[in-house]
Design a protein that fits this description.
Elements lengths: L16 H7 L14 H15 L3 H19 L8 H4 L7 H18 L4 H19 L13 H23 L6 H8 L7 H15 L1 H6 L13 H21 L2 H6 L17 H17 L3 H16 L7 H23 L8 H10 L2 H7 L3 H11 L23 H28 L1
């Protein structure tokens, strides 16, 4: 079953947007308070037109390029226009405004410091977006066409904002009395069970598991007939893998992937590079935490080899993500290699290990426990506490959620690593 978008059909251009951008000289600050700059008005109307016409390729260009360019020019240090200012420009299109708000809040989290009200509003917008898509009869699937890169960003940002809020809400020493009161009165805000429930609902209703099985015994219907719904379901599988890793449930994390074939050269995960790197990173991490080092080495090596052969184009923000993920995987791969007899990996991967890990890798092979701890801390994800903090405690503290997984991984590991490295050295001397 193909999940590729329909072939592009030419559509008439409303106004030459790029020439309008080139001619405009105002900035967001130049516009009167509460008003949207003319060039941004033109862009939003252009955006809404192609959103309404389901023009996949124009939307992809808008999301991957135009929106970023306008952000750099007009909103590098300020938010985009709020939805109530945009509404009159787009005929009060509720569906468009919900998707626009996804970009609006993502920009705030990326470039600015979100307030408590903005964290709450973003959570409510995600609930509204998923409800619009899935709280309906399957025969009445929302007629939207969303580029796969945007669908991935929706799921990825949803989990990031959950993760960020859990960290924010547990750093009590850094919170003001007003923020503590706001947290106490919003205990269900970015609630972990609700986040998990939404991702599981998306996977189930999108029928992505049936689609991946490609079996006549499991036909798809309703939501499963929509490429947008299917791909959102697929990315939600990767989201569940990530969440279970963050919670320390590595067995469930791997079980989530039962329907995903990582050996496929043209698997659905290849359509968006950040999805591919996240999928392989969290899979490799789960294997490593379950002491399945050979599987972890295989997964990390495949991903790093693919990254080294990929052209990232001109998308700087994407390049930065991949560089960070590459460094994490290199550190975890070095840990896994140092704990097994398997030392051979592809030459390109060895080059990355030497570049990203350096002498830390050699120290680990000699049994230096401090080097293992450094590599693990640099390579592991930012763990979160899925429960609420004790806001009534007399002493406010900032709790590190990396310490618990590290402490769980290292007590038996200290003994094993020391013995393993000494044994490896002894065997090499006997050759």
């Amino acid at each position: 079953r193909s999940t590729a978008p329909h072939p592009r059909t030419p559509t008439p251009q409303p106004t030459p947007l790029h020439s309008t951008m080139a001619e405009g000289s105002e900035t967001a600050a130049d516009a009167p308070s509460g008003e949207v700059p003319d060039v941004i008005q033109s862009f939003l109307q252009y955006f809404h037109k192609h959103f309404s016409e389901h023009n996949y390729y124009e939307l992809q260009t808008i999301c991957d390029s135009t929106f970023q360019q306008l952000t750099e020019r007009f909103f590098s240090a300020s938010p985009w226009p709020a939805a109530h200012l945009v509404a009159p420009l787009v005929d009060n299109d509720e569906v468009f405004l919900v998707f626009y708000n996804d970009l609006y809040y993502r920009h705030i989290y990326s470039r600015l410091q979100p307030t408590m009200d903005q964290r709450k509003s973003s959570w409510e917008n995600y609930n509204k977006l998923f409800s619009l898509l899935f709280d309906r009869e399957a025969s009445e699937a929302l007629p939207v066409v969303i580029p796969v890169s945007w669908l991935w960003d929706i799921v990825d940002e949803f989990i990031y904002q959950f993760q960020e809020f859990r960290q924010f809400s547990h750093k009590l020493k850094s919170r003001s009395d007003q923020e503590i009161e706001a947290l106490k009165s919003n205990l269900n805000l970015w609630n972990a069970p609700r986040v998990l429930e939404w991702l599981n609902t998306i996977v189930r209703k999108s029928e992505i598991v049936q689609h991946l099985s490609d079996s006549d015994d499991s036909p798809v219907s309703g939501f499963g007939n929509s490429n947008t719904y299917r791909m959102l379901g697929y990315y939600s599988i990767v989201g569940l893998l990530r969440l279970h890793c963050l919670s320390g449930d590595y067995y469930t994390a791997l079980r989530v992937l039962d329907s995903v074939d990582l050996s496929q050269k043209n698997g659905l995960f290849t359509s968006v590079l950040p999805c591919q790197t996240a999928l392989f990173y969290y899979t490799g991490f789960a294997y490593m935490m379950m002491r399945r080092y050979a599987d972890a080495i295989r997964i990390f090596s495949v991903s790093l080899t693919a990254i080294s052969r990929t052209d990232h184009g001109n998308r700087t923000y994407l390049y930065d993500q991949i560089v960070k993920r590459t460094e994490q995987m290199c550190n975890l791969l070095a840990v896994s290699l140092s704990l097994t007899a398997q030392r051979h990996v592809d030459e390109s991967v060895q080059g990355l290990l030497r570049e990203k890990v350096g002498d830390r890798w050699m120290r680990m092979q000699r049994g230096d426990i401090a080097a293992f701890e450094e590599a693990f801390s640099k390579g592991c994800p930012k763990f979160v506490n899925f429960g609420n903090a004790n806001y009534d405690a007399e002493e406010r503290v900032n709790r590190s959620h990396v310490l618990l997984p590290v402490s769980c991984f290292f007590p038996p590991f200290h003994i094993f690593a020391s013995c393993h490295c000494r044994l490896s050295s002894w065997l090499e001397q006997r050759k």
